[in-house]
Structure formats: structure tokens, C-alpha cells
Specification:
Blueprint: H1 2-9, H2 30-35, H3 48-56, H4 66-76, H5 105-111, H6 117-123, E1 131-133, E2 139-141, H7 144-148, E3 156-162, H8 172-186, E4 191-195, H9 200-204, E5 212-213, E6 216-219, H10 221-225, H11 231-255, H12 258-265, E7 268-269, E8 272-273, H13 277-285, H14 298-305, E9 318-320, E10 327-330, E11 341-347, H15 352-359, H16 363-372, E12 374-377, E13 383-385, H17 386-389, H18 392-398, E14 406-410, E15 415-418, H19 433-443, E16 448-452, H20 457-472, E17 478-483, H21 485-491, H22 505-508, H23 512-530, E18 536-541, H24 548-560, E19 565-569, H25 571-574, H26 580-589, H27 606-618, E20 622-625, H28 627-639, E21 669-678, E22 683-688, E23 707-708, E24 715-716
Parallel strand pairs: 3-16, 3-17, 4-15, 4-16, 9-11, 17-18, 18-19, 20-21
Antiparallel strand pairs: 1-2, 2-14, 5-6, 6-14, 7-8, 10-11, 12-13, 14-15, 21-22, 23-24
Helix pairs in contact: 8-26, 12-14, 16-18, 20-23, 21-23, 23-24
């Protein structure tokens, strides 16, 4: 029986015959053995499920034995060929019935009944013991899948980015999903989307959800846009545990002697004191090679118990899911004895723990990264880590489920990994390496994995290449650059585009002069992609007010700028069929010679790396380090962090630091006001200009329209 179950789970074995009789000497329950065979691998058609369906005439929903099946095929003379696909058979796509374009995203999402997630998992080649179900529409995938598929060749790796967007967004998520639907449901290739989990702040604020839109969505969109499987909540809990550990340690050091601290940090248990593993690690870091607490000298005890955190150096902030602008004073309770300090909140998706989740390559790697996170500096100038605080093991426990990618599906039944959600203008803006690696193995060498990099190519794409690919070792095959008529007209000098207000007439009437002027931004972003040696395909995301002349002009200018191809797409209105031309262009581009390279050597000085990004990607004349940033350059160089890559925290609304400057700004100097270190994640992030680390809520947030129908259980108001 165990051997039969192994064969059932093995995607390389397509059929199983039970040779009868089983044994003429020992009694074996023949019916039990036959019915343990998976119905889809039951070549003889003898399981109760297949035999029953065959008897009822359900010929399209059972495994018909070879002889009668062959006879029927000869009779029908259809000439139909075998439609099985590589490895796991990503072939069971949902039929998409396009109604009319005025349907809301949530209405469209609910019009499609998703496959049971365990069926999708089986289709893509996952074993049942590799999948943890979270209801009927989502599941987590265990990391042991990577080990099982280690020898499997990777598929083609595609990143979707965009021109500098309007505040409305230009449809990168929609294009990512539409492209995967086109590759899978229409070109019949194995295709997997890998996207970020959206933050609830923008979902309830002004931007809305991030499941794609129209007929190119991840479904169910309510599940996608809300709690999903709780990963962001786990990150919030872990982030705030670190914040609590910092304040608790500072309080206890300020109110206790060395001896009292030591006795509480290493308490007597059954008459003995014993260091915990994380405390042994701290001793080793201090160069104290002792494991017996009674052997420490007074000087060693002082060094062990005193982190001596400089309150002004604390870089770790509390985390919150919603978008609120908050600075707080903590320590005001009488029990805190007057030890107050100013702190603040950052949005959870800007937490270093989120970046760690996105960039980690294994559970052991995540544990190591969490331990290396620097939260402050001691008064003597030494970095203070979560390992020094003794909290890193607890963080790993809180994150043990969040590290597993979440499996969902598109409207057309294509697989999607939703995993990690670092902001792109604050953090590095890409979904997880682990999701990409598993998906690349599952699709096989002729398949495609399509992932999205947040905001414009100057933001998410640059970080995708210089940070994510540097950590993963993966080599991308194609860049898809999303452009819209609307955004390009804005860059050509069109009126201000503001979320929540109607578009000016320039955006809904044909204006080729304005459009051509704005294509300078597209040209620059094509050039940015080409700096990394990867072919570029421009996807012109068409809106109903765009004219053919406008769409054709963008395609013409994109090719002249050096794009391999440029096509206009209607995937929002038509699903995968509307991105079929894009899919064919991507398929051709993926076969081109590829000379992928990084923009800079990480061993260069910090300032040189920042300057290279500013000049080559943004078009700045130079950079200016303000005093705090200059101090951090010196501090991080002294602390040994100078060889980390750079993650620029910059506005996404302009190539420059000034959100009002559209098109391709020139003649500017990029101001760097501060630099922070995400040592566990593995990058330094300069704060450019006035870039905040938490966005604010508008006067009328989206949550005014979000409600629950208590009769049907349906969510209203999400978009």
C-alpha cells in the first residue's frame, strides 16, 4: 500500500497497473489495493471511481481503459493528440467568460468558481504532504519541495516593471497576471505568477487592492487583499517583539546593577545557572570563551550584561499595518520610573523582517538573517543586534509559517505564489526568492515564471537586479516594461493626475504631441533595463479611451528606443487572450542571448554605489550627502557594513527626488538626508530627500466604503 501511495504522488509516473491476481498463497484485499490507486493513474480503470463513472457514461470525467478508449478513438476519427504537458500538467485552466467592462473587480472575481486549491497543487506537481491547506482557495507550500526538485532544470524568469507611474498605477500587477494567463491558458505553456502580498494600509487607504484587475486577477480577491494566511500579522508581531525587547533591556540596564542583571539574565534553575544558546553566541561575539556562568570575571559579567544602547541611535521602529503618521513618547507610566524616549511607527511592509522574508533562501538562512539585524548602536560605537538582545530565536519561531509561500490562482486557473510584500519606494519591492525558486522548478525548462517589481523600473527593477538577483543567484531572461497612454501624457506635460478626481480631457482625448513628448520617460526606462543586459519587451496597457494611433505611436517609439518588441494589450478587458501577443513576444525574447550583469560592484565605497545609481538610473548630475548621511557612511564603514548593496528609499513618482518633476529631469543633485542599515536583509538604504517611511491616510480613505453583508457573508467596497 505504501508503494502505491508513493507512485500516486510521483509526477514522473503517469499510470499504474495492479497485476492480478495479487498472490495465490497469502490473502490480500484486492479491492483495497485497487482503490488505493489514484483515479487519474488507474490505467486499467478498475477503481470504484473510474468503473462507476464509466458505467454511468461519464466518459469525460474518468480514466477509460486502453482497449475501449482506443476503439472509441478509432470510431470517432478525431485525430486528437495527447494534450499532457511537461512534468505536472499545468493544463487544467478555467474557461473565462468575459461579460462587460463595467463590472467591478470584485464582481468579476466572484463570477469565477476557483478550483479547490489541493487540485491546483496536484496539477502543478506538488505532493500532498508538501501542501498545507488554508481553506479551499489558498495553501502554504513547504520548503522541502525545493530539495525534492533540486535536479529539475529552471524555467524562464521574467520580471514585470513599468515606466514612472501616475498616482493611479499603470497596471503592472494586472499585466503580470494577464501575461501568465496568456502563457498558460492560451499558449499552453507551464506558467506561474509570483507576486507580493499587499499591505492593508493602501488597501484601506486610497490605492485599493493589488490582486490585478478586470479579467486578469488573483482570486478570491478578498482573500488576497485582506489577511491571506497571516504572514503580515506574523511580521508585525515579530517586529514589535524586537521593539519591546529594546525598551525592556534599556529599562532594566538603567535600574539594576551588573550583578542583579546577571542573576536575572542567567537565573538559578535547580541550584545551577546555565547560559542559553543565544547567550553563548553573545559570549563568543565578545571573545569570551566560557560556557560556565560561575567562571566569568566581574569585567566579563559587565560586558555580557551591558548592551549600553545609545537611545539616539535606535533605528528600529514599531510596526503597524495601517497607514498612519505617528510619533510617540514611550515610558510615561509611573512604573517606568521616568525613562522616556521618542519613538515612531513604520508601516509593517517597511520592516526589515519583511525584507528578510523576501530575500531569505532557507529556514536556516532566515534564522541567521534575523539574528544579524542591527537595531541600534552602543555608546562605544558597536552595533547592537537582535542576537545581542536574545530575541532572534523567538523571531524565527514567530516566522516559521510565514516563510512558506502561499499558493493561489488566477481567474483562468493558473498558479500564483503570493509571498512577502516589501514596499518598493521604502524597501526593495519584490516578492520572495523562495517562491520564485520553487516556481522555476515546477514549470520546468520550457515554462515561465513571471514576477513583478514594484513601481517604476528606476525603483523596483533596479532593486530586483542589484539586490534580489544578487541574493538568489537567479538570472532573468526578459524585462516586461508596462506603459500607458495616460502616464506618458502626464510625462509630456499633461495636467496633474490625482487619485479620486476625474482625469482631465487631455487624458481621454487623442493627443499625439503630448504623448510623444512623454515617451522620453519610457525611453529612459528602456535604457535603464538595458544597463543590466536583459532584453526588454514593452507592454502598452490599453484603456478604453486610448486610440489606435496613440497605442501604435508608443510601440513605434519603444522599438526605436531599443526594446526587442512592443505590443498593446487588453488583458484587463479580455483576460489572457488580451495578452496573447505579449506572451508570444516574451517567449521569443526569452530565447535571445542574455548578458545579464549587475550595475555596480558591492565592494565599492558606499558613496560610489549611491552615486552610480543616482547618475546612471535617475540621471542626476551628482549626489549630496547631508550631515546625518555622512555620519552614517563613516559609522557603517567602521562597523563593517560598507560592502552591502544599496536600496534607495525614493519617491516613485519621478526619476528625481522631486515628485513634481516628470518626464526625464536633468540638472539636479540628489540629496541623501540619512542612511540606515538593514544588515539582516543585507542592504543599506539611503533616504532620498523628504521620503517618509510610512504613508498617511487621505481625508476620505477607502474604508468608508468597505463593509460586510451579515446575511451573505460577502465583503463590499474592495477594489
Amino acid at each position: 500500500m505504501h508503494r502505491v501511495m508513493e507512485v500516486n504522488e510521483d509526477s514522473k509516473i503517469h499510470g499504474l497497473i495492479v497485476q492480478l491476481p495479487l498472490d495465490s498463497v497469502h490473502t490480500i484485499n484486492t479491492e483495497r489495493i485497487i482503490n488505493s490507486v489514484a483515479p487519474e493513474k488507474d490505467v486499467d480503470g478498475l477503481t470504484s471511481i473510474n468503473a462507476g463513472k464509466l458505467a454511468r457514461g461519464d466518459l469525460g470525467d474518468c480514466f477509460i481503459p486502453c482497449t475501449p478508449n482506443g476503439c472509441m478513438e478509432l470510431i470517432k476519427q478525431t485525430g486528437e493528440t495527447n494534450t499532457s504537458r511537461f512534468q505536472s500538467g499545468f493544463c487544467h485552466c478555467n474557461s473565462l467568460f468575459v461579460h462587460f467592462s463595467s463590472c467591478s473587480d470584485v464582481t468579476i472575481s466572484r463570477s469565477c468558481v476557483p478550483k479547490p486549491i489541493e487540485c491546483l497543487a496536484k496539477e502543478v506537481g506538488l505532493f500532498s504532504d508538501e501542501v498545507e491547506l488554508y481553506g479551499r482557495t489558498k495553501a502554504k507550500v513547504q520548503l522541502k519541495t525545493i530539495d525534492r526538485l533540486q535536479a529539475q532544470p529552471d524555467g524562464k524568469y521574467v520580471v514585470v516593471t513599468g515606466i514612472t507611474p501616475t498616482p493611479l498605477g499603470e497596471g503592472k500587477s494586472t499585466t503580470t497576471i494577464g501575461l501568465v494567463q496568456a502563457l498558460g491558458a492560451h499558449l499552453k505553456l507551464n506558467a506561474f505568477a509570483c507576486v507580493r502580498q499587499p499591505s492593508q494600509g493602501p488597501t484601506f487607504g486610497i490605492k485599493g487592492g493589488a490582486a490585478g484587475g478586470g479579467y486578469s486577477q488573483v482570486i478570491p480577491m478578498e482573500e488576497f487583499n485582506l489577511h491571506l494566511t497571516g504572514d503580515i500579522h506574523a511580521i508585525t508581531a515579530a517586529n514589535n517583539l524586537v521593539a519591546a525587547a529594546i525598551d525592556a533591556r534599556m529599562f532594566h540596564e538603567a535600574t539594576q546593577s551588573d550583578k542583579a542583571l546577571f542573576n536575572r539574565l542567567v537565573p538559578l534553575t535547580e541550584g545551577q545557572r546555565k547560559f542559553s544558546p543565544v547567550q553563548i553566541s553573545r559570549l563568543e561575539k565578545l571573545g569570551i570563551k566560557k560556557t560556565d556562568p560561575s567562571m566569568l570575571t566581574e569585567e566579563e559579567i559587565t560586558r555580557f550584561v551591558r548592551l549600553d544602547i545609545d537611545p539616539e541611535s535606535i533605528t528600529w521602529q514599531r510596526g503597524v499595518i495601517e497607514c498612519v503618521l505617528l510619533k510617540i513618547t514611550i515610558g510615561q507610566s509611573p512604573t517606568e520610573k521616568g525613562f522616556t524616549r521618542t519613538a515612531q511607527f513604520d508601516i509593517t511592509v517597511a520592516s526589515e523582517i519583511m525584507a528578510v522574508l523576501a530575500l531569505t533562501t532557507s529556514l536556516a538562512d532566515m534564522k541567521e538573517r534575523l539574528a544579524k539585524m542591527v537595531v541600534a548602536t552602543s555608546r562605544s560605537g558597536q552595533p547592537v543586534t537582535t542576537e545581542d538582545l536574545g530575541v532572534c530565536g523567538a523571531l524565527t519561531v514567530l516566522m516559521r509559517d510565514a516563510i512558506k509561500p502561499n499558493l493561489m490562482q488566477t481567474l483562468e486557473g493558473n498558479p500564483v505564489f503570493v509571498h512577502a510584500g516589501p514596499f518598493a519606494n521604502i524597501a526593495h519591492g519584490n516578492s520572495s526568492i523562495l517562491a520564485d525558486k520553487i516556481a522555476l522548478k515546477l514549470v520546468g525548462p520550457q515554462g515561465f515564471v513571471v514576477t513583478e517589481a514594484g513601481f517604476g523600473a528606476d525603483i523596483g527593477m533596479e532593486k530586483f537586479f542589484n539586490i534580489k538577483c544578487r541574493n538568489s543567484g537567479l538570472k532573468p531572461h526578459v524585462v516586461v516594461l508596462v506603459a500607458t497612454v495616460r502616464a506618458l501624457k502626464m510625462h509630456g506635460g499633461g495636467p496633474t493626475v490625482t487619485a479620486g478626481t476625474p482625469l482631465a480631457k487631455e487624458y481621454i482625448e487623442e493627443n499625439l504631441v503630448l504623448l510623444e513628448a512623454g515617451c522620453s520617460n519610457m525611453r529612459k526606462q528602456v535604457e535603464n533595463a538595458q544597463l543590466f543586459g536583459v532584453p526588454v519587451v514593452v507592454a502598452v496597457n490599453a484603456f478604453k479611451t486610448d486610440t489606435k494611433a496613440e497605442l501604435d505611436l508608443i510601440c513605434k517609439l519603444a522599438k526605436e528606443a531599443g526594446a526587442f518588441d512592443a505590443v498593446h494589450c487588453s488583458h484587463w478587458a479580455d483576460g489572457g487572450a488580451g495578452a496573447a501577443d505579449l506572451a508570444r513576444a516574451v517567449q521569443k525574447a526569452a530565447d535571445l542571448p542574455n548578458s545579464f550583469k549587475f550595475l555596480y560592484d558591492v565592494e565599492l565605497p558606499i558613496v560610489d554605489k549611491i552615486r552610480i545609481i543616482a547618475q546612471k538610473i535617475y540621471g542626476a548630475d551628482d549626489i549630496e550627502l547631508l550631515p546625518e548621511a555622512q555620519h552614517k557612511v563613516e559609522l557603517y564603514s567602521k562597523q563593517g557594513f560598507a560592502s552591502l548593496p544599496i536600496c534607495m528609499a525614493k519617491t516613485h513618482l519621478s526619476l528625481s527626488h522631486d515628485a513634481e518633476k516628470k518626464g526625464v529631469p536633468t540638472g539636479f543633485v540628489l540629496p541623501i538626508r540619512d542612511i540606515r542599515a538593514s544588515v539582516g536583509a543585507g542592504f543599506l538604504y539611503p533616504l532620498v530627500g523628504t521620503m517618509p517611511t510610512i504613508p498617511g491616510l487621505p481625508t476620505r480613505p477607502c474604508f468608508y466604503d468597505i463593509d460586510l453583508d451579515t446575511e451573505s457573508g460577502e465583503v463590499h467596497g474592495l477594489f
